[in-house]
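Journal club side-thread
Mid-discussion, someone asked how the predicted structure for our own chain would compare to the paper's figures. Pasting it here so we can look after the session.
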Amino acid sequence: MTRQFKLKLYGIPTMSQFKTRVLPRPWWVVASFLSLMTLLAFMPRASLASECPALLNFKHSRLQDDAPQNLCQYAGKVTLVVNTASYCGFTSQYEGLEKLYANYKDKGLVILGFPSNDFSQEPGNSKEIADFCYNTYGVKFPMFSKTAVKGKEAHPLFAALAKTSGKSPSWNFNKYLIDREGKLVSHYGSTTGPSDKTMLAAIEKALTTK
């Protein structure tokens, strides 16, 4: 006994009959779409790496051209966030940070620099700061437009980092290390240079964790 015959025997409409008799064509399309959406809702999510962690879910303008940037683009990387200044006793750390970036970027490290005049050592505009960073230290890691990094006016990223770590920047070239999952690993003060062994060990450990 064929399937079509069984359906007719019990008065059950076939698929073609269901489409034409039970549901008008527009409703059939809607029903099919809803069924597909229900199926997709119960399918496993492709990858958690595609989600943006809270500590990176912010936007800010790029230094060299003020183009809007979404920090979510760095999700899945090990991220070192640094507040910078052009006229500071620690400004030479730019050189070490660029070396650090060059050595580890292919392994998944990104350094994000945020110039700030909160300590009265970054008076220039975006073009002046960008020219200084590139021409003096050859900085190629991502740099963002000048912003506040402490107090009530702090950029939301730094407000979130301060809340999570319990430490706001007390001077230029503070560093916040974030792992691939978007969790804060540690905070390092200005005196911790880019070649500090403890920080390097933390970076390498974060890079090897998938």
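Post-session note: Confidence is low (pLDDT under 50) at residues 42-49.
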